[in-house]
Amino acid sequence: xxxxxxxxxxxxxxxxxxxxxxxxxxxxxxxxxxxxxxxxxxxxxxxxxxxxxxxxxxxxxxxxxxxxxxxxxxxxxxxxxxxxxxxxxxxxxxxxxxxxxxxxxxxxxxxxxxxxxxxxxxxxxxxxxxxxxxxxxxxxxxxxxxxxxxxxxxxxxxxxxxxxxxxxxxxxxxxxxxxxxxxxxxxxxxxxxxxxxxxxxxxxxxxxxxxxxxxxxxxxxxxxxxxxxxxxxxxxxxxxxxxxxxxxxxxxxxxxxxxxxxxxxxxxxxxxxxxxxxxxxxxxxxxxxxxxxxxxxxxxxxxxxxxxxxxxxxxxxxxxxxxxxxxxxxxxxxxxxxxxxxxxxxxxxxxxxxxxxxxxxxxxxxxxxxxxxxxxxxxxxxxxxxxxxxxxxxxxxxxxxxxxxxxxxxxxxxxxxxxxxxxxxxxxxxxxxxxxxxxxxxxxxxxxxxxxxxxxxxxxxxxxxxxxxxxxxxxxxxxxxxxxxxxxxxxxxxxxxxxxxxxxxxxxxxxxxxxxxxxxxxxxxxxxxxxxxxxxxxxxxxxxxxxxxxxxxxxxxxxxxxxxxxxxxxxxxxxxx
Amino acid sequence: xxxxxxxxxxxxxxxxxxxxxxxxxxxxxxxxxxxxxxxxxxxxxxxxxxxxxxxxxxxxxxxxxxxxxxxxxxxxxxxxxxxxxxxxxxxxxxxxxxxxxxxxxxxxxxxxxxxxxxxxxxxxxxxxxxxxxxxxxxxxxxxxxxxxxxxxxxxxxxxxxxxxx
Lengths: 577, 165
Ligand SMILES: Cc1ncc(C[n+]2csc(CCOP(=O)(O)OP(=O)(O)O)c2C)c(N)n1
Ligand SMILES: [Mg+2]
Fold this sequence. Notes:
The complex is a heterodimer.
Chain A: E1 8-10, H1 11-21, E2 26-30, H2 36-42, E3 49-52, H3 56-70, E4 74-78, H4 82-85, H5 88-96, E5 101-107, H6 123-127, E6 133-136, H7 143-155, E7 161-167, E8 176-178, H8 198-210, E9 214-218, H9 220-224, H10 228-238, E10 242-244, E11 259-262, H11 269-277, E12 280-284, H12 290-293, E13 304-309, E14 323-326, H13 329-342, H14 351-361, H15 377-387, E15 393-396, H16 400-408, E16 417-418, H17 429-439, E17 445-450, H18 461-467, E18 472-477, H19 482-491, H20 507-513, E19 517-521, H21 527-536, E20 542-547, E21 557-558, E22 567-568
Parallel strand pairs in A: 2-3, 2-4, 4-5, 5-7, 6-7, 9-10, 9-12, 10-11, 12-13, 13-14, 15-16, 15-17, 17-18, 18-20, 19-20
Antiparallel strand pairs in A: 1-8, 21-22
Chain B: E1 2-10, H1 15-25, E2 32-37, E3 43-51, H2 54-66, E4 70-75, E5 81-92, H3 96-108, E6 112-116, E7 120-127, H4 129-142, E8 144-150, E9 154-157
Antiparallel strand pairs in B: 1-3, 1-4, 2-3, 5-7, 5-8, 5-9, 6-7
The complex binds thiamine diphosphate and magnesium ion.
């Protein structure tokens, strides 16, 4: 053999060794026939901690939560066929939100691929539209290279999930080959751009300095590129208002005086008003999603748009950018700050603009009514904020509770708010919280969920017991698929077709059956006390079942087909029944 | 508007399906597609003939460019270029008159008869897609077309600029 200096390992050992050498801490997975050899190689490993979930979808969401909280790549290992197909929703969730993941899937032996062998699924084909890239590895010696490339591709440029499909015969423990993990990755066809073009930077700075009614509009790109400090500095230097997308919350502190709230479908009055009236919109790491723009034909008619994104396909996809800048958010904002420093021109005086914004703020679009005899969901989030000092990691599921958690908990830091924004995957929140808690065992981690969503991955209560993952589940229980019901109330004449959750389990007993602590609260006067009790139990998973008003709606809400600032501000009489 | 995209990509399994998937998933048209490795066997070159307005094409080009195994994408129709397509047409000619007509038309179009039986001619023709279409139209008028097979368009830019890694 020529590769005398390289250790001879089996394919299965190479998989594990590659993960070790790449510094993987947690591997979320579930075994099965095609990956038994890999699991056997994992048995003696001490560097990579494997977390056995109870459903492969949860493995992906947990790895995803881990990735969102840390910025590292999340790692998943599943078997072929059903194991692989169970990951699809998780992969799509990560893809839509540009989250770096590597999913290792077992595959039937290369000799029988295409023969409808037992538990064969064309995983590369199934996942093709929802991955950044994928590999079907055909030889054992290619394993380390493919895995190293997968991690590199997942985390560079616009991050995303990468699938590595591993046929069973190439991980055969009896066949050894030289193990060679590349130290540096160089892919000639993949060169993610990073810095903005100086000419575009200059144009952007001129617009920013001369703007009279500017808005800085940022999304998940700020979080992904760790550009929060730079963003805050830019906003302060120019004294500009900042709005965040659902994915961008925490990009600037939710308590910052220049933060005007989330924008879009359930955005604040001041955020959507400011956008519509803006003369310059500085968009960074946001993609003018339809949940933001409302009717694109009526979108921000007076605005000159500067759009910074690492992915050129996001620029001018739905809204034409006047000054496109391709580059990483952090680097581009730094370039802009440097350029501002080097010019003599001063930014425009924005006091008239701020006066206008403050008038919109005074509308208090997030104000809500409270009652003596029932809890409303907004209160739950405010109570959570109080009890956790605004420092908790909050993951959420999808529905009304998600919007309340986005609007009523001002996130101070990036990565503190973790939700499935792009795909809107019910069932995401709880497994994601597991990933976050493993990454930050000393932090408070709350999963804000609903009676519908939590049941989509409730089986993970067992995983949390096995590995002692004491997250707090804040279940905003309205006995309904609240968001669906809200739309039916507003747009379908109150015909609540299949949006009522009949036969809910007793969540407290259920949690206890899984070996955890369950609490229930129905009285608004008890809310803070129960919440505090739950969070005081640092080492226990607590499921807080909070029975709330069944008719609460999320407001403000954009009017379909309208401008970005066409909004319903509060309950109209008779609407919420 | 008809546009031709030239794509240089890694010659690896799966690379082609990613491109085709991208077109079908987004509802972009493919009029023709050709693929083969280049002088460098590790690279493939795809020529796609498609239709769409500038905005759609810009999005397609960016999306293709974004694929990890794509090295270069160029819209050929943006600049002076050469395009060629090859067609093989199998024609049934019933009588002498028709046979003469087939031969004459093939000559005019500079086609070549590459196979003959007593009643069937197979003609090969090289040219732009327009020329290929015109030829097929003429043949249809003269005799009975039994079968046609077109290679799809390939193209290359004029001058010194070339599509290299
Ligand atoms: C997997 C999945 N299925 C369906 C939906 C559609 N959907 C969006 S919100 C919602 C209701 C969620 O109910 P619940 O979790 O109780 O939250 P609530 O709105 O009541 O706060 C549904 C069904 C979805 N987003 N994800
Ligand atoms: Mg509900």
